[in-house]
């Protein structure tokens, strides 16, 4: 059996916003993480990447955290005891929802370059 991996939730790029029909959009914060994932393909083996629709409710995120924490991107730690001290908590699950901090943690844990 494989070891549980941390999970990154991202908004699927190229989504339509019902408030602004006729255009496709991307989340600039999620796209920063998408760029790192594209640049370092081995990360996809180290963490689970789940892309979810733009529209709320985001059921997969609610199932992982709760309804109040659907903002993306978010990194959910598979083992709460391994989360950094600044991680947030929801019902016993630890997570980060700051893009810069997510990228720092990916660099720390998985050896991706990070400008200091």
**CATH architecture annotation:** 3-Layer(aba) Sandwich
Number of helices: 4
Strand order of the largest sheet: 4-1-5-7-6
Instruction: Please identify the top-level CATH class.
Output: Alpha Beta
What percent of residues adopt helix (DSSP H or I)? 25-40%
Span between termini: 36 Å
Rg over CA atoms: 14 Å
Kindly state the number of beta strands: 7
Give the overall shape, derived from the CA principal axes: globular
| Mean pLDDT rating | 93
Q: Could you give a short account of the major beta sheet? A: 5 strands, mixed
CATH topology: Glutaredoxin
Class by helix and strand content? alpha+beta
Overall description:
The chain has 116 residues and is of the alpha+beta class. Helices cover 29% and strands 21% of the residues. The protein contains four helices and seven strands. It has helices at 28-39, 43-46, 59-64, 99-110; strands at 7-11, 15-16, 24-25, 48-52, 74-76, 88-90, 93-96.
SSE layout and pairings?
Blueprint: E1 7-11, E2 15-16, E3 24-25, H1 28-39, H2 43-46, E4 48-52, H3 59-64, E5 74-76, E6 88-90, E7 93-96, H4 99-110
Parallel strand pairs: 1-4
Antiparallel strand pairs: 1-5, 2-3, 5-7, 6-7
List keywords for this structure.
alpha+beta, 4 helices, five-stranded mixed β-sheet, 116 residues, Glutaredoxin, 7 strands, two-stranded antiparallel sheet
